[in-house]
Inverse folding.
């Protein structure tokens, strides 16, 4: 195993004292957190802007959530935009029609996305490989069509506007995440930290080890008496839970829910981010998302044909970087 | 009543498109294990090629030439790109064809514009055949007949010709077919070209019915996936059945509950997965 930071193999490593891989991973984690914590301070100077930093964080969370399933359970989901988008519409509809509360909106959005994943995950838990991928793509489109058609409530093709994220009222303090972009960045960073910590702990738990066992050899896992379908179902739900959390934050960032955020192309983008960064490593998808988001931001401001550039990126990654950036670096670090 | 017949007929037509497209997808998926997400892009390309060729060689010429050219392009792309993903995790072929789908859509928009283009069908075919059932135009009957003809030709190809028999053998056990001295690389190329040819044909026909804009491919590919899943993975008759079934189902739904026209096929898919995960005519053991 050349992955530099696979949580599941940490136990194995602990027994043989610290390996170079574990040290590199620790260094990487510290570096990433320093960068994330200080990003609003320097992003302007390198030609970015605060909302771009927030977008990197939110998209990175979605890709990391997807990778829980893709990289650590070995199951191909190409429909995660559905849960991302459900989160986005959940928060938008709640704030617009029910209660003007950011936190409640997040709760509803995540609830709706996760519930959809519970149902769909149950239907597809026995499918594998290409078939699983195809069914997730197809199911991903259901919600797109619902949003697209249910014009009166969702705004249809124009998206859901006419609502804004609300300032946080914590009782003792009031945080203006609406007017202050930097405050909103740190608001998202708190969620990101909680979510990645939860995923990291899950992957180090016996449950996480079991998922990696299923990825490595499903038949052997089954012979050991592991209820494989149940684990895949649960992993699917966990993964969609974090994708819908990312979706709610994405809608709050834009004060807008976009029907394209639950379309098939978005699902593909999340997968390419995970692969581009390195799907066998925990921080790979975040890195992939950062590269992708910055590239897209740059390309879409320069040319109308940025969709072709994204397509070419897909092709190049598949042909030349199938292991992703951290996959390649990890191999170097160990040799 | 007339409305029901109208929508039923519409459903059969749209189902025929789904089936034609899904058959091409199925052929490629069964032999090479590749979900060709760029299939919709090939469909659009076939339609646009026909549109561009029509002023020079007429509708009938374009009907013959455009799918052939699309198929040749398919072989070229298989040879250059898709072939490199064989034997790897299906993730990579899917991502590759995803990227190709983006490129196709963008390139069609760049060359032919984002708006729909006027797509002429011969006057001979656009006349209604009967006054009381005005919606049964010659073109619609012609489309259904042509799809039926294509399916029959495909059946004969797969059961009566050497290459067809090899394709079918390859879908069951490609390693053995290779051991028996068949050039598997060539077989996969030809098979890919055949699948893409069907997409091109569907495109030329669909453009006359649905209008032609860059998104025509992506709007038809999702139902084709559903057709394959409902019909059963690994079964071409199943794919055909699945396509017609979901076409008719969405046709009927549009009468009673128009806003669920798209959603109904996914409900059907969910039901099939719940009751019979391998699909209506799917083979057992294809899921692994």
């Amino acid at each position: 195993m050349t992955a530099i930071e696979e949580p599941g193999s940490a136990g194995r490593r602990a027994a043989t004292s610290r390996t170079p891989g574990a040290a590199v991973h620790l260094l990487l984690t510290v570096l990433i957190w320093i960068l994330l914590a200080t990003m609003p301070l320097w992003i302007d100077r390198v030609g970015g802007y605060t909302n771009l930093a927030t977008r990197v964080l939110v998209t990175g969370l979605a890709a990391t959530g997807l990778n829980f399933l893709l990289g650590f359970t070995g199951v191909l989901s190409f429909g995660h935009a559905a849960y991302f988008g459900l989160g986005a519409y959940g928060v938008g509809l709640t704030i617009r029609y029910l209660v003007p509360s950011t936190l409640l909106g997040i709760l509803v959005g995540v609830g709706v996305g996760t519930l959809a994943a519970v149902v769909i995950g149950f239907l597809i838990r026995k499918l594998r490989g290409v078939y699983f991928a195809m069914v997730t793509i197809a199911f991903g489109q259901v919600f797109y069509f619902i949003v697209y058609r249910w014009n009166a409530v969702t705004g249809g093709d124009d998206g859901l506007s006419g609502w804004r994220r609300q300032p946080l009222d914590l009782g003792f303090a009031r945080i203006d995440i609406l007017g202050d972009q930097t405050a909103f960045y740190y608001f998202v960073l708190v969620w990101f930290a909680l979510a990645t910590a939860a995923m990291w702990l899950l992957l180090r738990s016996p449950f996480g080890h079991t998922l990696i066992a299923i990825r490595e050899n499903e038949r052997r896992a089954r012979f050991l008496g592991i209820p494989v379908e149940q684990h895949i179902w649960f992993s699917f739900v966990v993964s969609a839970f974090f994708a819908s959390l990312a979706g709610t934050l994405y809608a709050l960032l834009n004060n807008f829910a976009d029907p394209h955020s639950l379309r098939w192309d978005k699902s593909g983008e999340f997968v390419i981010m995970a692969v581009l960064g390195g799907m066998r490593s925990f921080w790979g998808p975040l890195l992939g998302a950062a590269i992708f988001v910055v590239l897209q931001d740059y390309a879409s401001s320069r040319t109308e044909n940025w969709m072709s550039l994204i397509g070419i990126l897909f092709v190049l990654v598949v042909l030349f970087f199938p292991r992703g950036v951290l996959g390649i670096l990890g191999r170097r670090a160990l040799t | 009543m007339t409305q029901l017949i109208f929508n039923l007929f519409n459903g059969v037509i749209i189902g025929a498109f789904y089936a034609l497209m899904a058959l091409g997808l199925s052929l490629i998926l069964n032999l090479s294990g590749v979900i060709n997400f760029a299939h919709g892009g090939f469909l659009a390309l076939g339609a646009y090629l026909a549109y561009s060729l029509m002023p020079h060689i007429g509708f009938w010429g374009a009907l013959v030439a455009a799918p052939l050219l699309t198929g040749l392009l398919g072989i070229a792309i298989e040879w250059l790109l898709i072939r490199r993903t064989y034997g790897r995790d299906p993730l990579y072929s899917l991502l590759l064809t995803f990227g190709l789908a983006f490129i196709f859509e963008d390139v069609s928009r760049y060359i032919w514009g984002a708006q729909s283009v006027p797509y002429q069908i011969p006057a001979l075919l656009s006349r209604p055949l009967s006054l009381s059932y005005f919606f049964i135009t010659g073109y619609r009957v012609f489309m259904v007949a042509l799809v039926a003809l294509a399916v029959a030709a495909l059946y004969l190809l797969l059961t009566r010709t050497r290459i067809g028999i090899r394709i079918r053998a390859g879908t069951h056990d490609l390693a053995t077919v290779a051991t028996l001295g068949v050039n598997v690389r060539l077989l996969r190329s030809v098979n890919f070209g055949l699948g893409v040819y069907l997409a091109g044909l569907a495109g030329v026909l669909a453009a006359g019915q649905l209008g032609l804009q860059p998104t025509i491919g992506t709007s038809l590919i999702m139902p084709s996936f559903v057709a394959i899943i409902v019909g059963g993975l690994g079964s071409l008759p199943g794919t055909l059945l699945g396509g017609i079934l979901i076409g008719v189902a969405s046709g009927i739904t549009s009468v009673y509950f128009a806003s669920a026209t798209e959603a109904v096929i996914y409900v059907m898919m969910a039901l099939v997965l719940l009751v019979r995960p391998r699909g209506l005519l799917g083979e057992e053991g294809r899921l692994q």
In short: The first strand of chain A starts at residue 168 and ends at 169. The interface with chain B takes residues 70, 76, 78, 123-124, 126-131, 133-135, 137-139, 141-142, 145-146, 149-150, 264-265, 268, 271-272, 275, 305, 307-308, 310-315, 317-319, 322 of chain A (CB under 8 Å).
